[in-house]
Amino acid sequence: MLAQWREALSPCRKQLRSSFTCYRRAKKEWKQAEESRWQRLTGRSAKLEKVCQQLLLEFLEVLRFVIKGLLHIVRLRSTPPDPVRPVLTERERTFLEGFREQHDAEFSVMADRAKLEPWLENCFDRLVQGRTDRIRRWDRDHQAEKEQQGRSWGKADSLLS
Question: Where are the chain's structural domains?
Answer without folding.
Answer: 2-87, 88-142
